[in-house]
Amino acid sequence: MSISTVEANQEHVKTVPEVPLLEVHNLKKYYPIKKGIIPRTVGHVKAVDGLNFSLYPGETLSLVGESGCGKSTTGRAIVKLDPPTEGKVILEGMDLSEISGLNLRKTRTKMQMIFQDPYSSLNPRKRIGDLLSEPLLAHKLTDKEEVDRKVNEMLEIVGLTKLHRSRYPHEFSGGQRQRIGIARALMLNPKLIICDEPVSALDVSIQAQVLNLLKDLQKEFQLTYLFIAHGLGAVKYISDRIAVMYLGKIVELGKTEDIFKKPKHPYTQGLLSTYPIPNPHLRNRERILVEGDVPSPANPPKGCSFHTRCPIAQDICRVQPPELTGLHHQTACHFPLL
């Protein structure tokens, strides 16, 4: 069998429809703005404003966009660390908005988070062994001997040793602390992991190591990632699909290759024009500058939220908000770029 035939068969396998592991429907997260001596609500910050997407078993979907677009808030709302204002989050057919208490506690074993800051996310008063054993003990999943065995095993899996379990977080480097955060997220054998900018606080060389570790773990444990990031290099390397966010909404969603080669939304083109290309023949490519500042999520523009900065905006863009349309490559734009 030829290489081209194998690649074609692999591509065919990837496109076979599957049942989503995670479904997000009209997800919103609003924060009240209060004023006065006796606080009263005078408005809302619309951090996440109606997201719709699905995440399939074994894939990595990345959320990208400028700071303040709602990426991290989306991740926290999905796992109900910061419960959503409106919308549905369905994990393996179970609507998380309809469960609470013990049922939610049991469901949380299926979804975990890796946080951006590997130091502040670890309790500085606890040893590493205690931090890793805590999830197992809290959920009463195993006995003490089995806990110790799993902690030692997980430390080795992420590139550390059992000798590290007696140390405190401040005794490790940033990359090692993030490995500990990854190990903690894996202790309960979750199916979904929200990676909230897990490499942005690390040096470039360490970023590559952590990304490779995440990819290896995904294969070994059949993990599904929602990967939140600023860096387009990391996103291109680890993602199967990319969702571009702007002001609390998804403006483009598609396969990684399609997003990088044929972006349809002007905002996506602006983001990609800042991405460095090592090929010297492409360094003089036309750059699309996105001018101006991101509008306040407390008072978003009417119509298309991007029209105040868009170089091709028309009258309809200022009045009518575009819908996210398309089959495999979706765009929320009245005049998508071809």
Principal-axis shape: globular
Derived from helix and strand composition plus strand pairing, the structural class reads: alpha/beta
CATH class bucket of the largest domain: Alpha Beta
Q: Hey, roughly how much beta strand do the residues contain?
A: 15-25%
Query: Can you count the beta strands?
Result: 11
Instruction: State the CATH architecture of the largest domain.
Output: 3-Layer(aba) Sandwich
Provide a count of the helices.
10
Rg, Cα atoms, Å: 21 Å
- Output the helix-strand order: HEEEHEEHEHHHEHEHEEHHE
How many domains, in number, for the residues?
A: 2
**Percent helix:** 25-40%
The CATH superfamily of the largest domain is P-loop containing nucleotide triphosphate hydrolases
Average pLDDT level: 89
Intertermini distance: 36 Å
Biggest β-sheet strands, sense, barrel: 7 strands, mixed
Low-confidence stretches: 1-16
Organism: Neobacillus cucumis
GO molecular function: ATP binding; ATP hydrolysis activity
Protein name: Peptide ABC transporter substrate-binding protein
Pfam family, one: ABC_tran
